[in-house]
Write a structure and sequence with these properties.
The protein has 162 residues and is mainly alpha-helical. The protein is built from seven helices and no strands. The longest helix is centred in the last third of the chain and has 32 residues.
C-alpha cells in the first residue's frame, strides 16, 4: 500500500494539482498582500517613515490597498473553488476526491476574466493614489518605496542592471 501511495503522489495529476495550489494558493506572489493587508500597510508606513504632513496621501493609498485586497479576495474565491479538493463523505485517512465538478472552458475563462479585471482595476486605483503619495515623499522615501512596494503589491521584481 505504501508503494501505491508513493506512486500516486508522483503521478502527473498530483504534480499538477500541487503546482496549481502553489500558483494560486496563499503562497503565490501577491496573495499575502490580500490575506494580510493591514499588517503590510502598517509595515510599509513604518518603513517609509510617513510624516504627519504626508498622512492624507498615505491614507488614500492605504485605502486603495484595502479595497484592492477585499476585491481580489472575493475574485479569488471562484478560482480557489476550481482547485479545492472534495472532502464530503471522506473519513480520516481516506483518499480525497480528485477535484470539484469540472467546469466548462467558458466558465473557467469567465472566472479568469473577473480575476484579471479586478487586478487591473486595483492596479489603476493603487497607481493613482501612489502617484499622489509619491509626489510628497522625500528622495529617501521614494528610494525605499521603490524597493519595498513591488513585492508587497504582488509585482514582479525589476530585472537587475548589469
Amino acid at each position: 500500500m505504501g508503494g501505491e501511495q508513493g506512486a500516486m503522489s508522483d503521478s502527473p495529476m498530483m504534480k499538477m494539482m500541487a503546482m496549481m495550489k502553489t500558483m494560486h494558493g496563499a503562497d503565490a506572489p501577491g496573495m499575502a498582500m490580500i490575506d494580510r493587508v493591514e499588517g503590510r500597510i502598517a509595515y510599509l508606513r513604518a518603513e517609509l517613515k510617513i510624516t504627519d504632513a504626508q498622512a492624507g496621501a498615505w491614507d488614500a493609498f492605504a485605502a486603495a490597498l484595502r479595497v484592492n485586497a477585499k476585491t481580489l479576495a472575493a475574485a479569488r474565491e471562484p478560482m480557489m473553488g476550481q482547485m479545492k479538493m472534495g472532502q464530503a463523505g471522506m473519513g480520516a485517512g481516506q483518499p480525497q476526491a480528485p477535484m470539484m465538478p469540472a467546469q466548462t472552458l467558458v466558465q473557467r475563462l469567465d472566472v479568469q476574466e473577473r480575476w484579471q479585471t479586478a487586478r487591473l482595476e486595483g492596479t489603476r486605483a493603487i497607481k493613482t493614489t501612489f502617484t499622489k503619495l509619491n509626489d510628497v515623499l522625500s528622495p529617501d522615501q521614494k528610494k525605499a518605496a521603490d524597493e519595498l512596494l513591488p513585492p508587497n503589491l504582488g509585482l514582479a521584481m525589476p530585472m537587475m542592471k548589469m
